[in-house]
Protein backbone atom coordinates (compact mmCIF):
# COMPACT_ATOMS: atom_id res chain seq x y z
CA UNK A 1 0.00 0.00 0.00
CA UNK A 2 1.22 3.48 -0.86
CA UNK A 3 0.15 5.78 1.97
CA UNK A 4 -1.18 9.25 1.19
CA UNK A 5 0.91 12.05 2.64
CA UNK A 6 -0.01 15.10 4.65
CA UNK A 7 -0.40 17.74 1.93
CA UNK A 8 -2.53 15.74 -0.48
CA UNK A 9 -4.85 14.93 2.42
CA UNK A 10 -5.04 18.62 3.33
CA UNK A 11 -6.06 19.45 -0.25
CA UNK A 12 -8.68 16.67 -0.23
CA UNK A 13 -10.15 18.06 3.00
CA UNK A 14 -10.21 21.58 1.57
CA UNK A 15 -12.15 20.29 -1.46
CA UNK A 16 -14.62 18.54 0.84
CA UNK A 17 -14.96 21.70 2.90
CA UNK A 18 -15.78 23.74 -0.20
CA UNK A 19 -18.40 21.18 -1.26
CA UNK A 20 -20.01 21.25 2.18
CA UNK A 21 -19.90 25.05 2.30
CA UNK A 22 -21.61 25.21 -1.11
CA UNK A 23 -24.51 23.31 0.45
CA UNK A 24 -24.47 24.69 4.01
CA UNK A 25 -24.20 28.43 3.31
CA UNK A 26 -27.25 28.63 1.00
CA UNK A 27 -29.29 26.45 3.36
CA UNK A 28 -28.45 28.60 6.35
CA UNK A 29 -29.33 31.72 4.37
CA UNK A 30 -32.61 30.09 3.32
CA UNK A 31 -33.52 29.20 6.92
CA UNK A 32 -32.23 32.26 8.77
CA UNK A 33 -31.42 34.98 6.23
CA UNK A 34 -28.79 37.57 7.07
CA UNK A 35 -29.38 37.01 10.78
CA UNK A 36 -27.29 33.84 10.72
CA UNK A 37 -24.25 35.56 9.26
CA UNK A 38 -24.46 38.75 11.31
CA UNK A 39 -25.54 37.46 14.73
CA UNK A 40 -23.18 38.12 17.62
CA UNK A 41 -24.40 35.01 19.41
CA UNK A 42 -22.57 31.84 18.38
CA UNK A 43 -25.11 29.46 19.94
CA UNK A 44 -27.16 27.37 17.49
CA UNK A 45 -30.18 29.31 16.26
CA UNK A 46 -32.51 26.33 16.04
CA UNK A 47 -33.11 22.82 14.77
CA UNK A 48 -32.20 23.69 11.19
CA UNK A 49 -28.88 25.11 12.37
CA UNK A 50 -28.05 21.93 14.26
CA UNK A 51 -29.12 19.68 11.37
CA UNK A 52 -27.34 21.61 8.63
CA UNK A 53 -24.11 22.33 10.51
CA UNK A 54 -23.68 19.12 12.49
CA UNK A 55 -25.88 16.26 11.27
CA UNK A 56 -25.56 16.90 7.52
CA UNK A 57 -21.72 16.93 7.54
CA UNK A 58 -21.73 13.76 9.65
CA UNK A 59 -24.06 11.99 7.21
CA UNK A 60 -22.11 13.27 4.20
CA UNK A 61 -18.72 12.23 5.53
CA UNK A 62 -19.59 8.89 7.14
CA UNK A 63 -21.87 7.98 4.24
CA UNK A 64 -19.13 8.53 1.66
CA UNK A 65 -16.58 6.69 3.80
CA UNK A 66 -18.81 3.62 4.13
CA UNK A 67 -20.14 3.52 0.55
CA UNK A 68 -17.14 4.80 -1.44
CA UNK A 69 -14.18 4.49 0.98
CA UNK A 70 -13.53 8.17 0.25
CA UNK A 71 -15.12 11.59 0.23
CA UNK A 72 -15.39 13.48 -3.08
CA UNK A 73 -12.13 15.34 -2.38
CA UNK A 74 -10.27 12.10 -1.77
CA UNK A 75 -11.84 10.47 -4.86
CA UNK A 76 -10.84 13.44 -7.02
CA UNK A 77 -7.23 13.09 -5.85
CA UNK A 78 -7.12 9.29 -6.11
CA UNK A 79 -7.17 8.54 -2.38
CA UNK A 80 -9.05 5.88 -0.48
CA UNK A 81 -9.60 5.12 3.22
CA UNK A 82 -9.04 1.45 4.03
CA UNK A 83 -8.75 -0.84 7.01
CA UNK A 84 -5.12 -0.73 8.16
CA UNK A 85 -4.93 -4.51 8.60
CA UNK A 86 -6.91 -5.85 5.64
CA UNK A 87 -6.73 -3.08 3.05
CA UNK A 88 -10.50 -3.43 2.55
CA UNK A 89 -13.06 -0.63 2.74
CA UNK A 90 -14.02 0.56 6.20
CA UNK A 91 -17.22 -0.29 8.02
CA UNK A 92 -19.76 1.94 9.76
CA UNK A 93 -18.17 1.57 13.20
CA UNK A 94 -14.72 2.53 11.90
CA UNK A 95 -16.26 5.48 10.08
CA UNK A 96 -18.01 6.79 13.18
CA UNK A 97 -14.89 6.33 15.33
CA UNK A 98 -12.81 8.10 12.66
CA UNK A 99 -15.31 10.99 12.53
CA UNK A 100 -15.28 11.42 16.31
CA UNK A 101 -11.50 11.17 16.13
CA UNK A 102 -11.46 14.25 13.89
CA UNK A 103 -12.67 16.34 16.82
CA UNK A 104 -10.14 14.81 19.20
CA UNK A 105 -7.36 15.45 16.66
CA UNK A 106 -8.48 19.07 16.36
CA UNK A 107 -8.93 19.77 20.07
CA UNK A 108 -5.29 18.99 20.79
CA UNK A 109 -4.08 22.05 18.84
CA UNK A 110 -4.45 20.08 15.57
CA UNK A 111 -1.60 17.79 16.59
CA UNK A 112 -3.71 14.76 15.68
CA UNK A 113 -3.84 15.99 12.09
CA UNK A 114 -0.23 17.15 11.94
CA UNK A 115 0.75 13.67 13.14
CA UNK A 116 0.07 12.46 9.58
CA UNK A 117 3.24 14.23 8.40
CA UNK A 118 5.48 12.33 10.82
CA UNK A 119 3.87 8.90 11.12
CA UNK A 120 5.37 5.91 9.26
CA UNK A 121 1.95 5.04 7.77
CA UNK A 122 0.85 8.68 7.52
CA UNK A 123 -1.89 8.03 10.08
CA UNK A 124 -3.52 10.82 12.03
CA UNK A 125 -4.88 10.13 15.49
CA UNK A 126 -8.33 9.62 13.98
CA UNK A 127 -6.86 6.93 11.70
CA UNK A 128 -5.13 5.20 14.60
CA UNK A 129 -8.33 5.26 16.67
CA UNK A 130 -10.35 3.71 13.83
CA UNK A 131 -7.68 1.34 12.52
CA UNK A 132 -7.58 3.02 9.10
CA UNK A 133 -5.03 4.31 6.62
CA UNK A 134 -5.42 6.59 3.61
CA UNK A 135 -3.82 5.19 0.47
CA UNK A 136 -3.20 6.35 -3.07
CA UNK A 137 -5.18 4.49 -5.73
CA UNK A 138 -3.20 5.84 -8.68
From TrEMBL:
Membrane topology note: Multi-pass membrane protein
Keyword Cell inner membrane attributed: no
Top-level taxon of the source organism: Bacteria
Predominant place of localization: membrane
Cell compartment(s), UniProt: Cell membrane
Any single GO CC term annotated in Swiss-Prot or TrEMBL for this entry: plasma membrane
Protein's UniProt name: RDD family
Amino acid sequence: MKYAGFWIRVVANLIDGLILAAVIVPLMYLFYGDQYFTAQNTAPLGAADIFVNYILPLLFTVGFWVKMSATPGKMLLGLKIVDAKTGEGINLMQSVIRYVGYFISAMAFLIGYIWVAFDAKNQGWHDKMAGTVVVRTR
